[in-house]
Design brief:
This protein is of the alpha+beta class. It has a single domain, classed as Acetoacetate decarboxylase-like (Beta Barrel). The chain has 5 helices and 15 strands. It has a 15-stranded mixed beta sheet that branches. A hairpin with a 2-residue loop joins strand 7 and strand 8 (162-171). The longest helix is centred in the last third of the chain and has 12 residues, at 250-261. It is globular and about 50 Å long.
Length: 299
């Protein structure tokens, strides 16, 4: 699949910018030392027992300000800046030049262009006991009786005139389109606020809103494979602390993003009939700096 070049961008109409499609939102247990390298030093990583909550958001948009395109957001973890905690994106891959440009210049995201090669395969589900059948009925929605539709997506990041295979995502269903049976699933509305910024294009720390309306169902987690060798977290010189986002090279950022994708999944949610509104980002003053200002005025 070629990277899409849109000539009639509608980003000027927003904010909020409207997106419609379907998605897979998968949560992983990510090692804190892996995630922490992406987090600006002004924020504190929300972690427990050496892990934080990260994962990925894989979406196919049928309608958006940039038209049709695919997106893979690698979520490093959850960061805390009182009184709120928000997700932090380690890497964003899209097959639209316009969407990539908007993500970098307007939202402060680490966006990169990529290709998404998709295959849809049919597989026969083996008979199972009653408890397994019950689980499959919830997780797989029984869309085709004993037939399940499997999706295979290869994501390759664009590198100047070449491409680098980043990962393969094996789906136990077709997340790329909404099935008629999904109309019976619960309809929900939720907000997924996120932090961004600290990039070459947007050095400020930012926060933006992401309001979602969709039908949601729990599904079996997707399997992620990668030919890129997973590396041990690199430590900085001096006090032995792990490198932070200011020291992270492009190669390190890519390999650490792979580590996030390969981490242990704990929950996968299929979003059907997705409608999403993304608000304009606002500059965030970290809590530590707020305290410094208040102390200055008190003195």
């Amino acid at each position: 699949m070629e990277v899409k070049e849109e000539t009639s961008s509608k980003y000027h109409i927003g904010p909020p910018w409207f997106f419609r499609g379907s998605a897979l939102y998968q949560l992983h247990l990510v090692k804190a030392e892996t995630a922490r390298a992406f987090i600006p030093k002004e924020f504190r990583l929300v972690e427990a027992f050496g892990y934080t909550l990260g994962g990925f958001f894989l979406a196919h948009y049928e309608d958006s300000p940039a038209g049709k395109f695919d997106e893979l957001v690698v979520i490093a973890g959850i960061v805390w800046n009182p009184p709120t905690s928000c997700a932090w994106a380690a890497r964003v891959l899209v097959n639209s030049d316009e969407a990539c440009h908007h993500g970098r210049k307007e939202i402060g995201l680490p966006s990169h262009t990529a290709t998404f090669s998709k295959k849809i395969l049919a597989a026969t589900e083996k008979s199972s006991n009653k408890s397994q059948s019950f689980f499959n009925g919830i997780a797989m929605n029984s869309n085709f009786g004993n037939q399940m539709e499997h999706g295979e997506i290869e994501v390759s990041e664009a590198k100047k005139s070449s491409e680098m295979p980043l990962c393969n995502i094996s789906l136990p269903f077709s997340v790329l389109k909404s099935e008629n049976s999904d109309k019976g699933m619960p309809k929900i509305r939720m907000s997924l606020p996120s932090f961004s910024g600290r990039t070459e294009d947007y050095p400020h720390l930012l926060k933006y809103s992401c309001d979602i309306e969709c039908r949601v169902s729990a599904v079996k987690p997707a399997k992620v494979y990668s030919s890129i060798v997973e590396k041990e977290p690199q430590k900085s010189s001096g006090n032995g602390a792990y490198v932070n986002s200011d020291q992270l090279s492009e190669e390190e950022a890519q390999t650490r993003s792979i580590s996030v994708l390969l981490s242990k999944p704990i929950l996968a949610l299929k979003f059907s009939f997705l409608k999403m509104w993304v608000g304009a980002p606002k500059i965030v003053v970290p809590m530590s700096r707020k305290n410094e200002v208040s102390r200055f005025w008190r003195t």
